[in-house]
Amino acid sequence: MSTFSCPLVEFTLEKHPGADTLSIAHIKGWQVVVKTEEFLNETLGVYVPIDAVASETNQFLGFLGGKRVKTIKLRKIISQGILLPWSAVEDYLQNESSFDGKIVGFKIGDDLAPALNISKYLPKDSLHKLFSGQVPSLKREDWPEEFVKYTDIENINNFPDIIQEGEFVQITEKLHGTSARFGLINNQLYLGTRNTVLKLDIEEKQYTIWHKVFYREKIDEFLKNIQSSFNEIILFGEIVGKGIQDLHYGFEEPTFILYDVKVKKDGWFQYLNHDEYILNNDAHAAFMLWQIRKAPLLYVGPYSKVKLSLRHGNDTISNTHMREGIVIKPVQERLHLEIGRVVLKLHSEEYLLRHGATDR
Question: For the residues 95-103, what does the mean pLDDT come to?
Fold first, then answer.
């Protein structure tokens, strides 16, 4: 899960082309439609992102009735989130008894979510309801240390300058399903959701959708076969298909789509670079032999912000519905001080505005 915050931000205002009383505020890579009069004398604001939620009595989000902040269109212009005038927030904090009438040195980038009682929306529905039986998961302390969760992917709108113009990147289609990871660690097979880990045994009789995909698609056989290239390996991907989410990609049955691979090389686990399993080598041959589906590759080459338009259009697997968005990462793995591993995402506005959305 990417970082959630309601930061104190600087912004610029642009006149709304279709409404005299509205403006478009630009914050990093985001845009929010605001009432012009509320921001004429403001230089700072608090940005409340999409998927923020607060109680019905909240000073600033109470008008939503406890519902989460969503992407909307106001007079035909996309608005993603809510921008609060800093003067209004400042007045509120000064009157809050918990602050003793004082505001202690907030600066650009500071997170105001705790002070404003705003949190990230967490869906109540869960794909764990699809389990056909109670499957005991391993306690967190019993997980093999190497069988890690996948990277928390930040939104590129929050970090628009981390990937530089001209840097070689790969852009893949982001898929709407449920997280899955399958691994072979110390000759033991494991499967995991994002937050759950199960040890797999041949006599395993209790099946979740993760089990069904694992055995039907012979991922167990693949993991054992590829030991000749990588002794220990973790496959990260998404399970998609009918009954998983509202986007199904044409699959009648739950289906695993691979989007990243981590292997033990030179004594430690590391993610494979793009050319290590996309281009010609033993690992690529093994992936092709076992026909493990990979997230659609939309682009490889020099990065430019123009390429972010690849988030639009139909999905490239079935061509039956909109894309969820894209994932951008450098061709050569690298780290950044602010976000760690450099992997960024961007949703399509069509996906965020769709009706009948599920997020399980």
Answer: 58
